[in-house]
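pipeline/complex-builder :: batch 7 item 3
reading input block
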Amino acid sequence: MTADVFLFWFLAFMTIVSGLGVVLMANPIYSALSLAMTMISVAAIFVTLQAYFLAGVQIIVYAGAVMVLFVMVLMLFDLKHELQAFTRGRATGAIKIATVGILSGLVVGAVTIGLTIGGKNQAEVASATKAAGIVDTTRGLSEALFLKNVFGFEALGVLLLVIAVGTVALSRSKGGTHARD
Amino acid sequence: MPETNIITTIGPEHYLVLSALLFSIGMAGVLLRRNLIVLLMSIELMLNAVNISFITFSHYSGKVEGQIMVFFVMTIAAAEAAVGLALAVSIFKRFKEVNIRFFEHLKG
Amino acid sequence: MNQQALIAILLLSPVVGFFLNGLRFRSKNYILAGTIATLAVVISFVCSVLLFLDLVGMPPEARRITANFFEWIAVDKFKVNAGFVVDQISSIMILIITGVGALIHLFSIGYMHHDKGVTKYFAYLNLFIFNMLILVLGDSLLTMFVGWEGVGLCSYLLIGFWFNDSAKAAAGMKAFITNRVGDAAFIIGMFILFMTFGTLNIHELNALAPTALEASWLGAVTLGTLMLFIGATGKSAQIPLYVWLPDAMAGPTPVSALIHAATMVTAGVYMIVRLNPLFISAPNTMMVVAIIGAATAVLAATIGLTQHDIKKVLAYSTVSQLGYMFLAVGVGAFGAGMFHLMTHAFFKALMFLGSGSVIHAMHEEQDIRKMGGLRKYLPITHATFFLGWLAIIGIPPFAGFFSKDEILWKAYSSSAGHILLWAAGVIGAALTAFYMTRLMALTFWGKSRVDKNVHPHESPISMTIPLIILGILSVIGGWVGIPHVISQYLGEVPNFWEHWLAPVIRILPLAPAEHGADHEALEWTLMSVSVGVAAISAISAYIMYTKKEGSADRVAKAFGPVYQLVNKKYLVDEAYFKGLINPLIRGSKNLWYYVDVNIIDKATYKVTDIVRGGGSFVKSLQTGNMQQYAMYIGVGVVVALSFVLMR
């Protein structure tokens, strides 16, 4: 068992456990902390896949900005206790869990069957991995982003501006669409 | 291929399975939790799961477009979180409540 | 002004009048409404006169003005233009329609001034004139049919004009439905003719008609023309579809004069005259037309003998006179038929307007048993009515004499004629003379039986002017068609009528036996017989109803059951109800109950139940619970994904 194999299993374990923590923790603050843990684990997984720039972005944007946002909102609400963490209803609950289970089972099955039987064999994957090493630099990413996909990039910039304005407008309104005064 | 390879040799399917499990966990959160904020967190989980699979495909196919897509998804996710939280704040201001059990006004 | 523009103005002027009045139909300003409507028709009349003068100026063979406004229908080979033709026949018709129509509009101003719906009334009248002009001018059977249906609609609207009275509304419906029967046959006739000749253009049909004999299309042509004739029996009130016309007297009297005497009911005759080469190609149809015409002339006249309503008498008289016209066209005397159509339009419009004047004077009293001695109260009405009376019973030199004599002569002498047809015509003439004299005697002469509270008065000038003009026309109208046997003693006055119509009408040859030296003597004999019979009949009626009181009742009693039968109009209406209408209603009710309610309705209710059940189930899914919606998405994804993977 080599180091990066161990690293993968460790990170996978961390991701799944902290992801479960997000869903299962009754206190939203703990959920938020679990989410931060998940974000960091995912960033580490990005590193094992040699996406270094995105790993950095993941930490800065998610674990930094978005998580701070969540936590601040939670502080704003000042929730003493959670009345009901989970939805009621046995039948719908069972259907929901079954849906999730079947879906994950289907996807996992599809992935394993698709990649070992119908997909590429191990040798091809390895050669592709070697080729990927050349492309996967921050330089390559920035070239692709600013030369090939510059229109999408600018469109995203406009979208962010709109979102910023919209968010400010929403926060300033007194009760949104249900305003009484 | 020997059985031991699944443990010792890490291939794309490992990452994809991880991604699928994380997505399912996020989906379970969306379906089962009642706190609006936790709901939004679960959505972030799902988006991250998708990001993992994108990076995996990008890595193993040697194409950089997958990372571009991840970049876009992150931006959208940040924007969505901002708007979602702003909505949550206004709803909280109005109802003093973040449990979506109380927001069933779209009943048919 | 060019002729196409004239035709356009001729047609559009009544439409403009219709809209001007129809859009302000609540107005009670009878002077304004009447002026608009009358002016519209007068403009049309002026156009008609100008067109007529244009025609006169042309060489006889080229007398034909066409106007194609646009292509109306074009489906493969089936092409119909909105085209209109003014030729020898239609020019006479438009003169009658707009001329008599204008007079009747003028009369209506006085007659309808107290009515609340006077503006609506004038709008309908103008619409009628428009449709009648379309009917007359249309250059194809389909265009004609548009007008044919349009006048039917106006007739319905005007018969049921006082629709608050359910009997009058029912009379309107009766007219409409009876006409539908005929119209259905007319449409079938058009189908057959189009199938046979591949065109509905009247000009082309007439040109193709002689070839029908060679191409052995005789059966199709006979059937087609027969169907057209059934359509004509509906519109022109012949056996077996005449029953609506007497009831149509429920409408205002000027309407009866315009639509149910002078113009619309003659549409059938006009149609046959228009298609005369086609009808000549179908001798069997011609025979049917002649027999039906003669039978109607006699039958309607006998019913007319026993009626007490002044308008009903005139209505049966109209049916009878229309029978004469069909007799004429049936024996191939198309010119005579048109001639009688024109003179009849004059004197029957006159008599209807006269009866309107009487009814007006008598405060809506229509029963002639409650009149009598009106001569001294209504001098102008009486004088003009007197002229109409002389014209209809065929006393020379009044208009009716020439046309009726022409018909009777042709009924005898034409190769399609027969002595029995002539005899029926003479009997009809005698009956006509009798009941018209009875009408005159009971209404105007003898002792007054007028109710004490009713004070008859002469009508206003707007009503008497049309009477006077029509009275003059009833006298001189026949002078355009003086037959040769008479005119040779008057300094060879030419027979304008025959010359005018000659290019467009095929004249059947006389029966071979009638040629020779005694031909003239025979014509004189027949003429004197018919006039003599009419005179004797009129004088006996005069004596019976003015000199010897009660003799009429004695005669009626002597005939007993026969009189009752005739008085009840041969129970034709009752027979129709028993034989046709009631079984139809019963059948429809059974269909409604067993098929509609039990099968169709139940099936549709089942469908609505299913839809409603499905809807309420789907409704229950929409809980407003957002997470449940997300669950639906998830289930959908699972199903779709498993479908893709399991495949």
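note: Residues 1-86 of chain A form a domain with the Four Helix Bundle (Hemerythrin (Met), subunit A) fold (CATH 1.20.120.1200).
queue -> next item
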